[in-house]
Write a sequence for this structure.
DNA sequence: CAAGAGATCATCT
DNA sequence: GATGATCTCTTGA
């Protein structure tokens, strides 16, 4: 049910695709919020100019260089936390950014209309789910940290769109890589 | 509608 | 001292 560490120890592009349709689950106290991952981006290796890792290992990006299945959270634009999961083998810097989630209806609680789109952007979803730097370096493949990912439906009933990543115009040849993935026709993906 | 600017700060130079 | 893996609000056509 819960995705094991080995799920993340493969190519970052594959992880980014395979995460689509999986469930991201957040527990705070006795409250559990279940969401579905509908959009991701891959940041791959030493040379990807869009990735923090291309400027070498620093205090901030240290966990990207570490083992797969570890959560990488950092602050951007002074106010938004970005949620990433580290991939591939130890010492190879790569991660998948979680960009948008679909809010799932609960049996006992009606989903308020305007709340449907509270997860359609990487900065918005971390704010709503209260994910911040405290999660940096924790394991996503264990429930104990209050944030984990479970396997999605066995049969993928959706098509995957592959497009350039958002907000990386400065990344030279890497800005055109089709490393942003989302579920085709899903209305919960982020804009642009 | 689309385009532009401002918010706000840890990290890097 | 500059900047960014963003978001929201304001402006103007």
């Amino acid at each position: 049910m819960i995705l094991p560490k080995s799920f993340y120890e493969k190519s970052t592009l594959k992880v980014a695709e395979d995460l689509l349709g999986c469930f991201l689950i957040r527990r705070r106290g006795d409250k559990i919020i279940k969401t579905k991952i509908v959009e991701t981006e891959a940041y791959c290796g030493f040379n990807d100019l869009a990735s923090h890792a291309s400027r070498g290992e620093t205090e901030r990006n240290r966990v990207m260089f570490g083992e797969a299945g570890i959560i990488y959270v950092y602050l951007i634009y002074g106010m938004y936390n970005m949620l990433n999961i580290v991939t591939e083998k130890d010492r190879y810097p790569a991660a998948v950014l979680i960009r948008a989630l679909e809010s799932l209806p609960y049996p006992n609680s009606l989903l308020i209309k305007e709340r449907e789109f509270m997860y359609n952007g990487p900065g918005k979803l971390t704010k709503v789910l209260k994910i911040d730097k405290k999660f940096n370096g924790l394991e996503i493949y264990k429930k104990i940290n209050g944030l984990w990912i479970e396997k999605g439906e066995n049969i993928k009933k959706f098509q995957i769109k592959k497009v350039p990543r958002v907000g990386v115009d400065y990344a030279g040849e890497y800005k055109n890589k089709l490393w942003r993935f989302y579920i085709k026709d899903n209305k919960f993906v982020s804009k642009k």
